[in-house]
Amino acid sequence: MERRIRHSKGLEKTVSINKQQIDTLKESMKYLKKECCLLKNTHKALRIFLKSTFSHELKNISHMKMYILQTTKQMEIYLDDKIKSEQQNQRDNLLLNALLDEKKNAIEDLETITFSFNKEIEKLHDHILALKLSITEKDQQLENVDELKMKIGSLEKTVEESKLREQLYKAKIESSGQPILQFSGDPLSDMENQRRINKKKIRDLLLENENLKTTIYKMKELDHSRASTPSSTLTSG
Which spans of this chain does the record mark as coiled coil (predicted)? Predict the structure, then answer.
């Protein structure tokens, strides 16, 4: 009778232990489901983030990828340790198989998420490459515009120098009898030479005007004396 009682108590204890193990496994299953849900939510958040900010720093994407890989490894290690620990005391093969199926499904889900994540990264790389090519083309266009501006500025300078030479040439033609201006190719130097020539021309003209003034004065005096000579002759007669 005592053996039966002890045997009954042993069975109750075994049943209690099995229940505790089953409860532990259920808690593990809940934890795994929460982790899977967290990973799915993380993946959704990543997809929204990638769509809204495709040009964001790829470091964040790399960190997220590392987080997923680390989480996967941690989950695999956790599941492996849990299964190894439970295999020693767990006699319910159905529950064990269910755990293995859950692990397999979780790994498959993670692989699917990782594959989709890698595809998104490839798309981002392609888009960034296209943006870089577009920026390179824009930079080339800007360089061409700057080169055209430099050419236009050079042509405008050449036109101004040509106008200057034309003015100097006209001034040279007008200054007949003056020293001939020898063009040096330097507009400023040519203008200074022309200024000196003009100054000399002005001095010569002023001197000529003074000579003309003296000559005119003498001629007027001569005319005046000629005009007064007949009158005096008639008076004396």
Answer: 138-165
Is the pLDDT confidence value at 235 over 50?
Answer: no
Orientation of helix 93-174 relative to helix 187-236, angle to 10°: 20
How many C-beta neighbours within 10 Å does residue 190 have?
Answer: 21
Q: Can you say how many angstroms the Cα of residue 14 is from the centroid of all Cα atoms in its chain?
A: 72
Q: Look at the block and give the residue holding tokens 């319910």.
A: 92
The count of other CB atoms within 10 Å of the CB of residue 105 is 12
Dist CA 143 CA 77 (whole Å): 57
Whether the model clears a pTM of 0.90, i.e. scores above it, the answer is: no
Structure-block tokens of residue 131: 């943006």
Cα–Cα distance, 179 to 204 (Å, whole number)? 12
Residue 22: other Cβ atoms inside 10 A? 14
Residue 61's pLDDT is 67
Report yes or no: 50 and 124 within 8 Å, Cβ to Cβ.
yes
The helix or strand, by DSSP H or E, that contains position 10, with its residue range, turns out to be helix 2-52
Using CA atoms, how far residue 142 sits from 124, 150, 153, in Å, is 27, 12, 16
Do 99 and 28 form a contact (C-beta atoms < 8 A)?
A: yes
Query: Using a CB cutoff of 8 Å and minimum separation of 24, what contacts does 85-90 make?
Result: 86/21, 86/24, 86/25, 89/17, 89/21, 90/21, 90/25
State how far the alpha carbon of 181 is from the alpha carbons of 55, 168, 200, in Å.
67, 8, 13
Percent of the chain at pLDDT above 90?
0
Structure tokens at 185: 């190719």
Tell me which amino acid residue 5 is.
I
**Residue 188 has which token pair?**
């400023």
